[in-house]
């Protein structure tokens, strides 16, 4: 079982990874529309506060999906650039 600090660090690192990968791939967060990453961060704060492991697991899976999608997108961008 992870401690509250470990859970927080894990989510924080995943969020930072998504942000960094968005910058690398040239994806900007939505200005006029709600940003999915923002929604996940709010959900993570609520899950941490309630110590709900099931919610936290779902949040980490959502973040993993975002990271996978960004990896695929980055790979396609490299192919298009001819790298």
Q: Over the alpha carbons, how many angstroms does the gyration radius reach?
A: 14 Å
Give the DSSP E fraction (strand runs of 2 or more residues): under 5%
The tally of domains stands at 1
Overall shape: it is elongated
| Separation, N- and C-terminal Cα atoms | 42 Å
Q: What portion of residues is helical? A: over 70%
**Poorly predicted spans:** none
Q: What integer is the average pLDDT?
A: 85
Structural class: mainly alpha
Helix tally equals: 3
Q: What is the chain-wise order of helices and strands?
A: HHH
Largest sheet: none
User: Using DSSP, what is the number of strands?
Assistant: 0
Explain how this protein is built:
The mean pLDDT is 85. This protein has three helices and no strands. It has 83 residues and is mostly helical.
Summarize the structure.
The chain is mainly alpha-helical and about 80 residues long.
Secondary-structure blueprint:
Layout: H1 4-25, H2 36-50, H3 53-81
Helix pairs in contact: 1-2, 1-3, 2-3
Essential attributes:
83 residues; mainly alpha; 3 helices
């Amino acid at each position: 079982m992870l401690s509250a600090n470990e859970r927080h660090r894990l989510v924080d690192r995943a969020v930072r990874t998504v942000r960094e990968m968005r910058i690398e791939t040239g994806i900007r967060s939505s200005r006029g529309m709600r940003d999915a990453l923002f929604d996940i961060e709010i959900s993570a704060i609520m899950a941490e506060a309630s110590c709900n492991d099931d919610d936290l697991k779902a949040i980490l899976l959502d973040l993993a999906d975002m990271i996978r999608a960004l990896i695929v997108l980055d790979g396609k961008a490299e192919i298009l650039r001819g790298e």
